[in-house]
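Course assignment 3, question 2. Fill in each field.
Student: A.L.
Task: Predict the tertiary structure for the chain below.
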Amino acid sequence: MCGIIGYIGDRKACEVIVKGLKRLEYRGYDSVGVVTEENGKLYIKKGVGSVDEVTERLKLLDMPGKRGVGHTRWATHGVPNDINAHPQKDCTGKIALVHNGIIENFAELKKELVEKGHTFESDTDTEVIAHLIEEELKSSENFEEALRKALLKLKGSFALGIVYTEEPDRLYFVRNESPLVLGIGEGENFAASDVPAFLEYTNRVVFLDDMEYAVVTKESWVVKRLETGEEVEKEVKTIDWTLEMAEKAGFEHFMLKEIFEQPRVLRDAIHGNAKVIGDVAREIADYEKIFIVAMGTSYHAGLVGKYLLQRLAKKVPIVEDASEFRYEFEDLIDENSLVIAITQSGETADTLAAMKLAKRKGAKVLAIVNVVGSMATRIADLTLYTHAGPEIGVAATKTYTTQLAVLTMLAIELARTLGTADEEYLKELEENLRRVPDLIEDILNLNEPLRELAEGLKDRENFFYIGRGIGVPTALEGALKLKEISYIHAEGLSAGELKHGPLALIEDGVPVVAIAPKGRTFDKMLGNIEEAKARGAHIIALGSSERLREVSDAFIEMPDLDEILTPIPYIVPLQLLAYHLAVLRGNDPDKPRNLAKSVTVE
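Answer field:
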């Protein structure tokens, strides 16, 4: 949530910054701001609206200077307005900064600063940081010392980009529990919340860790520890994403592009983990106390993982919402625990907090992550990458199916290591998993029929998604996709729960989406569908059975697979259905209201 982009070099800074802000729009925001510096003077422009709107209204591209920082803000303290937008500055007007995160003790700090004569313009916690640095400058030998002293007084999360007029050759960037990465160029350098912001210019990056800051000039960069000021040796990594990978490639929306990328990225996920999955499985095989923690779509992936581990490896994990985990399970975690953390960005605040708790308690932590070098990978003992590439649409699609692929591979390899399943069966599962990308290519041919189906459903205001067993997480994820981008109320649940309450809401024409692969509960599922149909439900069924087709009002034919593998292909039509309903209702599926791609505050 929120985005930062900083630049120093020989280009016109405002142009680089505005381009970068455009590429950070997926993170969610309500206002935009830029600060540049030239000849010892700060130029600040900021306002509520989209990057395009603010750029046009305030003429951001006319700002002078060859260094500066920009920001897209998601309000946490202070309402969204022009004054509360970033950058924020100190009393002297010499310090300007942008901030992602939440300062928990800002009210106490602000009170102290007001008593010392500081005046504030905004209601933000961010402005406190600028004034705090200004105050520390009075008793410090230099700006860097003042910066360190000020930031060590903060409690909370912060990623910062800072311009100081008295040091015209450099910028400062700071990270603590909010993502920040440096981009290393030739005669120019960058910093941003995420790599696509500067990928047009460089693919060489340095990831900052918590409580680290960077001093960046156009020719050099150095990373230091906030507590001590000591230099930290950092590895420059090369990102293999191209700029084109972060663009729409001819599709109307990023979400649709990313849905269609799933066959390719699933192959990447399977191939990319083939050589490492065995070592990971052997290292975690002896753990019996297993927790899976995640948020949002990744949580649904965790629920699928639970079924996979139960069925194949005979393990019984607890799956918990990461925001609840550290409050409810702190006393149950110890050195005999395995915590599997699933996070697309590797920066999800609640998931990181759960991981840190697990580490403090001595647990083994395995992260399943998309973004190389992200914070989750640095906390974890073990990491499996999903290899999905950048996902710009706020609603997760390809990152979900690649998470499922990795979890499936892990469960198969654990079963092999533990001897809990027949080897021939495991080989058959592996072979069919490698077929899934091809099967999804066939499913994507249903795009137009699904758009036509959506035409007839676009005015409905309530949907139910039902499944049994390993199909329940697919029902939950299908419902989440629908409500987050189409703004239609949707409820996902176990089909067996229908008669325990939700059936009271079923009436003529209410769409009920049934996830019904062949398997151990298929006959029960048919009975649940009949119950809903008898109350007037409009049945939209996904499956491969002719009996299912007969009871359906709309039938989406799916490949005939072992139900263990069905969560990956079965979600794809539901992603497409949600996408088309969103577009038909006039919504932008890439930027749903009130949501952000990467939730980096708790």
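Instructor remarks: The first strand starts at residue 3 and ends at 8. The radius of gyration is 25 Å.
Grade: pending
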